[in-house]
Request: fold
Amino acid sequence: MGPDRLLEEYRALAKEHEAIVRRINRTNPGARIEFRDEPMSLADAVIRRERLAREAALLRDLAHRATPKANRFLHTEVKHVPTIDIAGTIAEADRLSKEHRELDARIQRANWEVELND
Reply:
């Protein structure tokens, strides 16, 4: 298959993908779900899911970077002391990750239950 044929196939698939995404974007604001006793649109649920993932990743990175490294060879070297509660930060990241997984499962369920708008 030559490059011209590949490019033609790509463009056809890209147009098909665009059409599906448009249908999803027309459907999600009107589709309603409930998560943890809170009603919300599917669009809002997707936005919250992404925020939860970003915040959990940020907290994990923060805890990782704040964890003192065992690279002191002498007691006279400067000791690094964390200025945040590392265990608490990891616990909060775990809580957010759990909420993210639960919300993702609810969104996936809705994906099977909701009919796409034309």
